[in-house]
């Protein structure tokens, strides 16, 4: 097959300390950005599917304020599709999205949300160079390669 292989996850997503620090960082970012949903460290330690969906939607809207949920798609499918458009280098399991807050499924999804936070912060720092595309754009044309390559190298 000529499909590109996903990169191996370098972050210690299964490490309890890493997960704890990641939850704290995500909670702080969401609070600072004015997220009205569940953003305490307790809520984000084991989020419900709805809490995850609300937080992910909020982050995607920070990245692209014109982005709206597609009412014709399940959130799980839309989440995976958006991360593919953004060229997230690691696999996202649709099965994990069906049971977000478990000890096995939450750490990689949390890592994906933190990657999105990093992308938002990177975009804000470099916006005057090349803004990120609208999430509705075509995947091949959607991302400005130098911006994303610079992001992935950080």
Summarize the structure.
It contains eight helices and no strands.
Give the SSE layout:
Elements lengths: L15 H17 L8 H5 L3 H15 L11 H11 L8 H5 L7 H21 L12 H4 L2 H8 L2
Helix pairs in contact: 1-6, 3-6
**Largest sheet: number of strands, sense, barrel closure:** none
Distance between the termini: 30 Å
Report the portion of residues in β strands: under 5%
Given the structure, what is the number of helices? 8
Along the chain, the helix and strand elements come as HHHHHHHH
Provide the helix percentage. 55-70%
The shape, in one word, is globular
**Which runs of at least 5 residues are low in confidence (pLDDT < 50)?**
138-154
Radius of gyration: 15 Å
Helix-strand category = mainly alpha
Look at the structure and give the mean pLDDT: 81
- How many E-type strands? 0
Task: Kindly describe this structure.
By secondary structure, the chain is mainly alpha-helical. The protein is 56% helix and 0% strand. The protein has 8 helices and no strands. The protein has helices at 16-32, 41-45, 49-63, 75-85, 94-98, 106-126, 139-142, 145-152. The protein is globular and about 35 Å long. The chain starts with 15 loop residues before the first helix and ends with a helix. The model is unreliable at 138-154 (pLDDT under 50).
């Amino acid at each position: 097959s000529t499909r590109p292989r996903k990169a191996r996850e370098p972050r210690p997503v299964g490490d309890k300390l890493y997960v704890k620090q990641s939850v704290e960082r995500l909670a702080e970012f969401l609070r600072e950005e004015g997220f009205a949903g569940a953003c305490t460290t307790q809520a984000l330690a084991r989020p419900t599917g709805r809490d995850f969906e609300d937080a992910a939607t909020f982050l995607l809207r920070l990245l692209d304020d014109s982005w709206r949920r597609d009412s014709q798609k399940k959130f799980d499918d839309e989440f995976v599709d958006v991360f593919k458009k953004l060229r997230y280098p690691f696999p996202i399991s649709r099965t994990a999205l069906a049971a977000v807050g478990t000890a096995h499924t939450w750490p990689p999804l949390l890592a994906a949300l933190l990657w999105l936070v990093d992308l938002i912060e990177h975009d804000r720092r470099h916006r005057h160079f090349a803004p990120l595309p609208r999430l509705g754009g075509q995947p091949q044309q959607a991302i400005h390669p130098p911006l994303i390559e610079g992001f992935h190298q950080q």
